[in-house]
Design the sequence.
């Protein structure tokens, strides 16, 4: 006589699998949140670098001065006389405290003030730094006073 044998998972097998998944999730979640915060700080700093470059390029293209103004109170900056990319506003403005960055401008020192002006040849009026922070991560954007080139450090 043949006997049928049913194979499957027992309740103990399922509980062990769920326990392993819970342990892995408990380890991975803080690491993921930490990596996400670091990424946000770096992305915000790279955005500042790109927009400083945009300001310089726009000044060269139009052969007139352009200014990027940083607002540490609202953690934002704007580029005067440059239209927003969405075309809805006359002023190009970025608020770093909003998604996707959720960052803040910790400090700005651009020749003693919080703005950087490029003349019609793309030459900056000063150099300096902008410190961007998200969580415990800080990145410093350094602007060369002679060339206006910006980089993240």
Sequence:
């Amino acid at each position: 006589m043949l006997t049928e044998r049913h194979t499957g998972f027992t309740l103990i097998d399922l509980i062990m699998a769920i326990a392993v998944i819970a342990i892995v999730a408990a380890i991975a979640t803080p690491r993921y949140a930490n990596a996400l915060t670091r990424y946000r700080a770096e992305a915000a700093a790279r955005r500042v670098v790109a927009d400083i470059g945009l300001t310089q390029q726009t000044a060269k293209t139009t052969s007139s001065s352009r200014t990027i103004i940083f607002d540490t109170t609202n953690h934002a900056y704007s580029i005067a006389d440059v239209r927003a990319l969405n075309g809805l506003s006359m002023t190009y403005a970025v608020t770093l405290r909003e998604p996707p960055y959720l960052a803040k401008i910790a400090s700005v020192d651009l020749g003693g003030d919080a703005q950087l002006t490029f003349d019609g040849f793309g030459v900056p009026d000063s150099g300096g730094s902008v410190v961007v922070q998200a969580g415990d991560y800080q990145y410093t954007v350094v602007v060369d006073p002679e060339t206006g080139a910006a980089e993240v450090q």
Q: What stands out?
A: Helices lie at 11-62.
